[in-house]
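Supplementary Methods S3. Complex input for the zinc ion-bound model.
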Amino acid sequence: MSKHIAPTFGQTSFHCPICSVYSEQTWSSYTDSHYQTRNPNGQQVMLHYRLTNFSSAKCKHCDQFSLWLNQKMVYPLTGNVEMANTDLPEHILSDYNEAKDIVNISPRGSAALLRLAIQKLCGHLGEKGKNINDDIASLVKRGLPVQLQQALDSVRVIGNHAVHPGVIDLDDKPETALALFSFVNIICDYFITQPKKIAEVFSNLPQKDKDNIAKRDS
Ligand SMILES: [Zn+2]
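Predicted complex, serialized as structure tokens:
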């Protein structure tokens, strides 16, 4: 699985927030722009706008611009979130995309939706899907790799903090939601995409080879 390089201010390459392709970005900034316009009588009027820290990055792949104000992306609004794994089941994909739509407006709401998505994903993978902690424990028994276990444990810890009022609320940070997006994709990749790919490779083998493998295994 290729790593998602989130768009960052000033970076010369990242995954484009518009076409999703990892590509080169050309930056321009408009700290002191002059606009020429005409008044209703047709006389030319020169207007001076001072736009503070307004920048754009043009994607080499799709020729579209992302717009940045004070080093933060303001267009597209959901630009710093990686695309959902296309193997996600439909009902989980819709949670993912809804979380993506609101991440910059409400990181906490976004993180809550993503926790729900992870819980549903655990359910889809044959776990009870009711309690994330139990499901994680069960997935570990099914041979969950250490990195994935740590990822899921962070989800659990982040969630526990969020339900206790007065405790530092990690979910207020967009970074938490951003981490959860990638966890959904990692889990999906490990349990759905990779097995699917392996099955495809096997099914494309010549019948003679498949027979030989079956003979060897019997
Ligand atoms: Zn692009």
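The radius of gyration is 23 Å. The pocket of zinc ion is lined by residues 16, 18-19, 21, 23, 59, 61-62, 64 (CB under 6 Å).
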